[in-house]
Design brief:
- Strands 3-4-5-7-8-9-11 form a 7-stranded mixed barrel.
- The relative contact order is 0.17.
- It has one domain.
- It has 3 helices and 12 strands.
- With about 240 residues, it is an alpha+beta fold.
- The N and C termini lie far apart (about 80 Å).
- Helix content is about 20%, strand content about 45%.
């Protein structure tokens, strides 16, 4: 058989003889280390996303309704990156608990701990429902070192969608009255005289009654319990 140039090319031969031997190229140790590092980083990010998905999340913003002072260090709006959001049903009512915890290099006593609980009248019958909120529906507590604050709902609304695949999505806008704790005078000022703040946010909560109740109990501690009736009649949207 005559090896024409076309046949030689198809067989992998060059025009000047058989192909040269090809030897495996060794990958430098540094390249292997970089590959392992990329795998480790991917695994870590995947694990963190999985944990976050099991705990829910929310984006909450807080701003004073009125200001009497405005220092340079005071933010325009307080942003609360919630990394725990749970919901559950109890006695026909729908409970939602949110928490943001940020440790401090100075120790647990100086950590930032923000918790909120919200209760409405049951799950939506349709795809979503608008819930009017009043005082007993919302509780917020915040601790940063020795600074302790608590807020009680005043007015507001929440829109909550029907749960899908064990997740509950919604958003809320409420006005709260905030008190601050002092060693000499306790919680001040009185609820009716307390300054008002606007709290808005959206959440994606996962179903977990145990962790949700633990947060709710913290928001109702030290004489901050709710009364029996917490919400007004809601309406489908």
């Amino acid at each position: 058989m005559i090896l024409t140039p076309d046949i030689q090319r198809a067989a992998g031969f060059g025009l000047h003889g058989p192909p040269k031997a090809v030897y495996p190229v060794r990958r430098p140790a540094r390249a292997k280390a970089c590959g392992l590092l990329r795998v480790w980083r991917f695994s870590l990010v995947t694990a963190l996303l999985a944990v976050a998905g099991c705990r829910g999340s929310a984006d909450v913003r807080v701003v004073p309704l009125m200001r009497t002072d405005f220092t340079e260090r005071e933010p325009l709006v307080q942003q609360v990156p919630v990394d725990e959001a749970y919901y559950w049903l109890e006695d026909g009512r729908l409970w939602i608990s949110l928490r943001c915890y940020r440790p401090s290099a100075l120790g647990p006593a100086f950590a930032f701990d923000w918790e909120m609980s919200l209760v409405v009248d049951g799950l939506p019958a349709g795809s979503a429902r608008l819930y009017p909120l009043k005082g007993e529906a919302v509780r917020v507590v915040q601790t940063v070192g020795g600074d302790q604050r608590r807020s009680r709902g005043w007015t507001g609304v929440a829109v909550i969608h029907a749960p899908e695949n064990g997740r509950l999505q919604g958003r809320f806008h409420c006005n709260v009255r905030q008190q601050q704790f002092t060693l000499l005078r306790g919680w001040q000022p009185s609820p009716l005289a307390a300054p008002m703040f606007i709290v808005v946010g959206r959440f994606e909560a996962v179903e977990n009654a145990e962790l949700g109740r633990a947060i709710r109990d913290e928001t109702e501690a030290a004489g901050f319990e709710r009364m029996a009736t917490a919400t007004r009649p809601s309406s489908a949207i």
